[in-house]
């Protein structure tokens, strides 16, 4: 078991608390100095979302909007922002979290009503962008839990230690509060994330964790934010290579790519969520051909999506361009579980070892 | 900690294995005796699905169909059944499981092809019904994991003991193989299942497990089969009362009812899945009024669904009929999380204690 060395971690909660306090203090300062209180909110418009070649994910550009109490139309929005910031400051201070839904209901008592939850969600995002912090750090938790993890890693949540090899067959569930979890130690050499829980259970059953000294991560489709944060942390804090194995279709490709290079919509938090060193293991168009997998024909919507991906800067890489072209050419897609054509064990006994060999 | 006494449990796997073997043996016997091999498959048609007042859930009636090798149209179907049964026998013997998707791909090698997965799924269900066993016992696992469980219960999976109070903030995940899990001990007086993970995390944060000596179960919407099996087992094997708290709308009502009285579609396995003693705690129409909850107006589809429920035998009970009428009258629904109007803690500090008091 490799012990994880104690790092002089910055306390994320403390930083967030200070940022939130600072936002209020700036307004008070403006008032004291008889200036009109103004907030600068970075723009999340598409023209301000830029793919950063060096970082290998989307970031926000430097455009921002001003919200001023001197503008009658902006007074309500500033009032809402201050209320939400205050609610979050309270959460952080009391070490609590709330869902966006709960915040919306709590806001009924603020007398500065949101017309619907979408409106309060957007103000929450305004605070995220303005302070350059994630909603999780603000205490605003997504409803959904993250992926399932199986394998020899020990985590600490508060005063509880959890071994993801001893959490049951469905493994350890990554909670939305993943940033409060410490890595204590591990005995693995890599991480393999798979799209479906069917494949997750197959890998647990065939003892893939043992055969490949790997953590097995069951993504359950599109990876939740907590999952992306977990994969980034194991990759960067524990120096573990991360491989992603999904269905061989444009949707499977993109589940991998959002883990690798983040989404445009979350450009303001990709520095916390994207794992540019993560690698797509398969199922690729080449795999479909080489392993003679059972396939389904591409639907129109699949073809359309593949053509979109070909133009997406995240897929600039030659290997991706070739795979997209190849899939369009054969006009076929294949599921992760289609390796069972050769028996249930084949994917673990043959496919994974061959692919890992080629990639490492 | 209450220790769970060792029970002389029948070995479900052994029983299933014998049933599967028996199915093949019957055919061999017919052949040896020069009779035409025939299988009796209980009918799953709506006219054979009956609500059993004594058992308080749907069961299959006594109608069945014959499949005979003497009927040319039925030869392929019998061949498929025998192949699937053989595949399952192999799974059970090797202590493995497979998803229906995997079985479909494996079947490519059988030379008695299924046109699509729906066809192989149905044959799997034929075997379930014919042998009176669940697909889980046959080794055919659903893709989806069950609910999250938080609280002081110790479970055993193989040689691993798991305490659901020490599995992390997202708790212990009920695996599709829940019937292979043993209850070792617990220190709780009840079980509260909630519809959303937002409410699950709220309860964990407010220490509801401690305040109410309860297990907290996060259903994640409609309860998975594994969750229903878990709730039935804690109710019947551990004698723990089970309460269900969902959104106050027809869909929330029905999530509770399927746990309580099973679904019509699964009439053949409700004896393993339904928990007739489980109780609906809320959110009821009365709660909406009494707690002056924030509401949304009922949509046409909600009204339609409520009227359907009013005619459903599972809702015959006077209390249900009154709640359905009341909701139709006020024309409003409310979400579980709407209690946050009174602060994040209110639901645990006030609502749950008041309701539990009234119900116990």
TrEMBL record, chains A, B:
<dbReference type="InterPro" id="IPR036388">
    <property type="entry name" value="WH-like_DNA-bd_sf"/>
</dbReference>
<feature type="binding site">
    <location>
        <position position="195"/>
    </location>
    <ligand>
        <name>Mg(2+)</name>
    </ligand>
</feature>
<feature type="domain" description="Type II DNA topoisomerase VI subunit A all-beta">
    <location>
        <begin position="143"/>
        <end position="187"/>
    </location>
</feature>
<dbReference type="GO" id="GO:0006260">
    <property type="term" value="P:DNA replication"/>
</dbReference>
<keyword id="KW-0067">ATP-binding</keyword>
<feature type="domain" description="Spo11/DNA topoisomerase VI subunit A N-terminal">
    <location>
        <begin position="76"/>
        <end position="139"/>
    </location>
</feature>
<dbReference type="InterPro" id="IPR004085">
    <property type="entry name" value="TopoVI_A"/>
</dbReference>
<dbReference type="GO" id="GO:0005694">
    <property type="term" value="C:chromosome"/>
</dbReference>
<keyword id="KW-0799">Topoisomerase</keyword>
<feature type="domain" description="Topoisomerase 6 subunit A/Spo11 TOPRIM">
    <location>
        <begin position="191"/>
        <end position="356"/>
    </location>
</feature>
<dbReference type="InterPro" id="IPR034136">
    <property type="entry name" value="TOPRIM_Topo6A/Spo11"/>
</dbReference>
<dbReference type="GO" id="GO:0003677">
    <property type="term" value="F:DNA binding"/>
</dbReference>
<dbReference type="InterPro" id="IPR002815">
    <property type="entry name" value="Spo11/TopoVI_A"/>
</dbReference>
<keyword id="KW-0460">Magnesium</keyword>
<keyword id="KW-0238">DNA-binding</keyword>
<dbReference type="InterPro" id="IPR013049">
    <property type="entry name" value="Spo11/TopoVI_A_N"/>
</dbReference>
<dbReference type="Pfam" id="PF21180">
    <property type="entry name" value="TOP6A-Spo11_Toprim"/>
</dbReference>
<feature type="active site" description="O-(5'-phospho-DNA)-tyrosine intermediate">
    <location>
        <position position="105"/>
    </location>
</feature>
<feature type="binding site">
    <location>
        <position position="247"/>
    </location>
    <ligand>
        <name>Mg(2+)</name>
    </ligand>
</feature>
<protein>
    <recommendedName>
        <fullName>Type 2 DNA topoisomerase 6 subunit A</fullName>
        <ecNumber>5.6.2.2</ecNumber>
    </recommendedName>
</protein>
<dbReference type="InterPro" id="IPR049333">
    <property type="entry name" value="Topo_VI_alpha"/>
</dbReference>
<dbReference type="GO" id="GO:0000287">
    <property type="term" value="F:magnesium ion binding"/>
</dbReference>
<dbReference type="InterPro" id="IPR036078">
    <property type="entry name" value="Spo11/TopoVI_A_sf"/>
</dbReference>
<keyword id="KW-0479">Metal-binding</keyword>
<keyword id="KW-0413">Isomerase</keyword>
<dbReference type="Pfam" id="PF20768">
    <property type="entry name" value="Topo_VI_alpha"/>
</dbReference>
<dbReference type="GO" id="GO:0006265">
    <property type="term" value="P:DNA topological change"/>
</dbReference>
<dbReference type="GO" id="GO:0003918">
    <property type="term" value="F:DNA topoisomerase type II (double strand cut, ATP-hydrolyzing) activity"/>
</dbReference>
<dbReference type="Pfam" id="PF04406">
    <property type="entry name" value="TP6A_N"/>
</dbReference>
<comment type="subunit">
    <text>Homodimer. Heterotetramer of two Top6A and two Top6B chains.</text>
</comment>
<keyword id="KW-0547">Nucleotide-binding</keyword>
<comment type="function">
    <text>Relaxes both positive and negative superturns and exhibits a strong decatenase activity.</text>
</comment>
<dbReference type="GO" id="GO:0005524">
    <property type="term" value="F:ATP binding"/>
</dbReference>
<comment type="similarity">
    <text>Belongs to the TOP6A family.</text>
</comment>
């Amino acid at each position: 078991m490799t012990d994880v060395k104690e790092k002089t971690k910055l306390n994320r909660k403390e930083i967030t608390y200070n940022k939130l306090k600072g936002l209020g203090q700036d307004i008070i300062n403006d008032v004291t100095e008889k200036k009109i209180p103004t907030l600068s909110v970075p723009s999340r418009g598409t023209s301000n979302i830029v793919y950063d070649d060096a970082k290998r994910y989307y970031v926000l550009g430097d455009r921002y909007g001003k919200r001023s109490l001197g503008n009658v139309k902006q007074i309500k929005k500033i009032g809402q922002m201050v209320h939400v910031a205050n609610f979050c400051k309270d959460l952080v201070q009391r070490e609590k979290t709330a869902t966006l839904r709960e915040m919306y209901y709590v806001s009924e008592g603020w007398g500065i009503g949101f017309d619907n939850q979408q409106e309060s969600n957007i103000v929450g995002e305004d605070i995220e962008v303005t302070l350059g912090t994630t909603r999780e750090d603000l205490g605003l938790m997504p409803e959904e839990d993250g992926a399932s993890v199986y394998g020899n890693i020990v985590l600490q949540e508060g005063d509880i230690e959890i071994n993801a090899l001893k959490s049951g067959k469905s493994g350890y569930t990554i909670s939305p509060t993943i940033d409060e979890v410490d890595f204590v130690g591990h005995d693995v050499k890599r991480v393999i994330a798979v799209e479906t829980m069917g494949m997750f259970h197959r890998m647990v059953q065939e003892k893939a964790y043992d055969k490949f000294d790997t953590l097995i991560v069951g993504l359950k489709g599109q990876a939740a934010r907590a999952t992306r944060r977990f994969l980034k942390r194991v990759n960067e804090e524990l120096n573990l290579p991360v491989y992603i194995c999904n269905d061989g279709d444009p949707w499977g490709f993109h589940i991998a790519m959002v883990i690798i290079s983040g989404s445009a919509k979350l450009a303001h938090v990709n520095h916390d969520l994207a794992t540019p060193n993560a690698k797509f293991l398969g199922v690729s168009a080449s795999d479909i051909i080489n392993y003679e997998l059972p396939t389904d024909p591409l639907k129109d919507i699949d073809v359309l999506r593949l053509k979109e991906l070909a133009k997406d800067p995240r897929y600039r890489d030659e290997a991706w361009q070739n795979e997209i072209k190849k899939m369009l050419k054969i006009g076929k897609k294949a599921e992760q579980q289609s390796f069972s054509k050769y028996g249930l064990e084949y994917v673990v006994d043959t496919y994974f070892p061959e692919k890992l060999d080629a990639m490492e």
